[in-house]
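Re: the request from the purification team.
They wanted to know what the chain is likely to look like in 3D before they choose a buffer screen. I agreed to run a prediction and write the result into the notebook, where they can find it.
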Amino acid sequence: MASAFEWSASRSGDSVAAVEGDDSLTYADLTARSGAVAGALLAHGLRPGDRVMVALPRGLEYLVAVVGVVRAGGVYVPVDPRWPGARIAELRAIVDPALTIGAGGISVGELIEESPGGFEAPEIGPESPCYIMFTSGTTGEPKGVVVPHRAVVRLVVDQDAFETGPGRSWLHVSAVSFDASTVEIWAPLLNGGRCVTVAEELPSIHRLAGIMRSSGATDAWLTSSLFNAIVDDAPAAFEGMRQVMTGGERVSPEHAQRFLERWPGIRLINGYGPTENTTFTCCHTITIEDTHNPAGIPIGRAIRGTDVLIVDEADRPADEGELLAGGSGVALGYIGDDSLTRARFVERDGERWYRTGDQVRRRADGVIEFIGRLDRQVKVRGHRIELAEVEAQIGAHERIDRVFAFVLGDRSDINRLAAGYTCPGEPVSPEALRVWLSGRVPRHLVPDVLCVLGEVPIGQTGKADLDAVRRQIEASIGPGGEESDSRGTGGIGWDALAGRPRE
């Protein structure tokens, strides 16, 4: 990947590589400054494969740091400098970095000042680790995903699932510790484009919209929740854009339809994929027809450099079942957790695959539709229930937008099926919805508790905060055990929508 950057930079010269407000760096500037950082890191004794924790916010300084680490053969570990010290210390203990840039470590300025004035680039192979991105774990412990150079190159170089190249300006709005930042940073920098960094910590939606328009951004990756918020409150932000990618959770057909009706000339893409397969596994260019699909917006087909396989419960190839991701994007595994790595990264027919845990189906035309998580199967009063099915059935109501299903336990430890839902217009009362559902599904699939939600609370990953949604539902239950008909409340913080991990 370092060679890909240098090739891109050598062709781009005085073209702008990155923008932060009124400040900018040309490719020549970025090459010189990151080269100085690389030289200083090597002078500090950094060896190929050594890890460097980069605790800096979005901005030009962050870009100089990570490009420098990559060119020195190191592995960058992005963390949010605003995280609690205990959290940063926990991650530092896991990765055991050779150096830390920011957060009490050495600064970019100090590295540049210390630079010997040049460096001999180490040999970096495609299997060499490039960065470590942390995700939440089922045990509550963070998982560090080790991503190699070939995976990033596969994502953004000569990719056919989305457009890249000189003259394109990519909005960098995600948190540096969120894997969407991989495409936001490297798609422009490895293809002669511009990285438009939104360095402000908490601008409003309207302020963000202003930045999108004034910066001339042509391309953006937005979580579904952030995309929805902009469509709702500041749709003019998309003026002049050429490509918008969204995802991270189910895409709202209603918001996609409104976007496409207003901006038919902008390509809207649903991007699906886990961190363990380097940001995107499948992509789908959304059409108006897709917004009327009862199964929701498809996740599409495997992107270039990626293989996908669907297997049933017996691990046999099938048209519906668990999605396995293979090809050049598959990560090396989890740092310090060989057992989990062996469980999730498996060998089949001489190829390495990542088990996503996502249930999908392949349509007759080859397009893949997302069904839900395989680990959301529950039992209520002896009945085996897939929460994804409950959500799909309620979501089929024409006046209902988003649905979240849970199992709640009362003081008698008797599980009750519960669901919260949002209505863009006039709300559907729980009583009316129960009657409607009773005409569609068996009784055991009709939730005991139904709750009309207000704004869906957003966690700092930019996705729905399921714990907060659950609390809204629990709060709706009256003294007699019945749900109320009042809307819940929730708040959306812009930085959360942009992918700040929730602590």
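For the purification team: Residues 27-43 form the longest helix (17 residues).
Please add any questions underneath this entry.
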